[in-house]
Amino acid sequence: MDTIKKIHEKAREKIKSIVLPEYNDKRVAQAAKIIEGEGLAKVTLFSKDMVIASEKERYIQEFFETYKAKDIDLDTVRKLFEDTLYYTAMMTKEGKFDGLVAGAAHTTADMVRSTMRCIGIDERLTLISSCFIMQVPNCPYGEDGTFVFADCGVIPDPNSRQLSCIALSAAELAKKVLDLTPRVAFLSYSTHGSAKTKSADKIVEALAMLKKLAPDMLADGEMQVDAAIDPEVAAIKSPDSQIAGRANVLIFPNLEAGNIGYKLTQRLSGARAVGPLLLGLNKPASDLSRGCTVEDVVDCVAVSAIRAQ
Fold first, then answer.
1. pLDDT per residue over 216-228, tens digit each?
2. Residue 253: which residues within 8 A CB-CB, separation 6 or more?
3. Could you give the domains of the chain?
């Protein structure tokens, strides 16, 4: 059984409620019918006529009181809440929904701001990042062709601490959603000091920080991607590696590398890319690409449902 089928089956095991605030996007509306038909989640296509005026006003006042120190005025907040995205994010925070999936008609910046401010950030991580689940056909690497790539959508140039938190949250998602033992590789153009640069040093420091956060996690870095995923290359370049060329969670050194890496893999190999899945929030949320397909929406809802279980 392939990875996507496994995800769908796991989502059905314990039905969770996921809200889709982009009610007027045809792809999202079509996906909602498929999700209900396949029993992947209890999905709500949330339209403006479902907004309760008194509740909206309460959310506006709560949001304003929380962020007024950041020089945001009440009129600006009211404009934000004309969009169902902010309203449903507040509902998700309160537990009225178990997770939120949007982004088909919103930018990543919209998604990050709304979820960060409404749903809130996990205090352990103190940052939002993102990942993709990648299913690569006819691939012997990773977990039978399945990988988690991070961060491919949020943090442009993460420092060592941020990289360690990205790695931790991506590994936790891999374990929760895919039922696999995470084997984390911090990617670089250098393998264990083959190049002496500040960027390589940053990755070495990130690995040390991750080991403090999760001492038992299988992780290595800095590593070139061939040494990270190919056991034969690893035997030459990094024979003592903890992951021995079997990495299934790939941590990119910056956003350029991550975004290029996932899109290149997707286009050249025909890989299925599920995400971006937002990491580090108090409740599950997924940021769809504005070029997403109906299939992408369905998959992100299924993953969000599992994360809420």
1. 999 998 999 999 9
2. 158, 163, 186, 187, 188, 199, 202, 203
3. 3-120+282-308 (3.40.50.10950), 129-269 (3.40.50.10750)
